[in-house]
What does this fold into?
Amino acid sequence: IRAPAAWPLAGPLDAIRIAVLDDGVDLSHPALAAAVVGSFDALDGTEGPVSPNAWDYHGTSCAGLALGLGAGFRGVAGGARLLAVRIARSPGPGQPWATSNSVLRRGIDWAVDQGADVISNSWGGPPSSVVAEGIARASGAGRDGRGAVVAVAAGNSGGPVAFPANLSGVIAVAAVNLADEPKTWASSDGESWWASNMGPEVDLAAPGIGLTTTDLQAAPGRTPTDWRQDFNGTSAACPIVAGAAALI
It folds into this structure.
């Protein structure tokens, strides 16, 4: 995506806030700790440090791609500030997220109220007017009335663009592989178990295969280390686009 060419053009990013709405973020990770300016657990409505479950590593990986900055690693908008919002958690390893539309709305509203310039959403679900109204508020009233940039993953089922990426006023993000091919069931990357959702609502695509990013520091995480090299899906593409928006 030629991010290194953009970095000297963007100038300092320490006034730019990216909100990552996910299953929590490892706020003490060495590539993320310095970026944190706020955290919120929308599940119970409390502010302050939120420790994700030991198996909920998704949000930490998203945050790294958007704005991580550490030895030998730089996310797309490394140097920007992080608002970490937990909008879901899984009750056990490999189990589906537990959340609700009211929780999602609470997380979106908090991010807007904290001055998020960009909101990264690597999640989707059934249509909800509560969530749609929250996103409309973010894209309209965020950034002191200029509108926050809302990036949303299109989904990974190979079908139509999922909610809320199919809403107007958001940037719907699909995935391509490292050969810059649309990610399909049969694309040349060999990952035949998923395909990017596609459709007229898609605004941008970004890499979604084999990406290196941050992992939970403690076991189990995704890997035995603090890093992973296998992040994929439109979940990975979305924070790349969020980082690019932060640079702009």
Observations:
- The chain has a mean pLDDT of 96.
- Residues 101 and 128 are 7 Å apart (CA to CA).
- The first strand starts at residue 17 and ends at 22.
- The chain is about 25% helix and 20% strand.
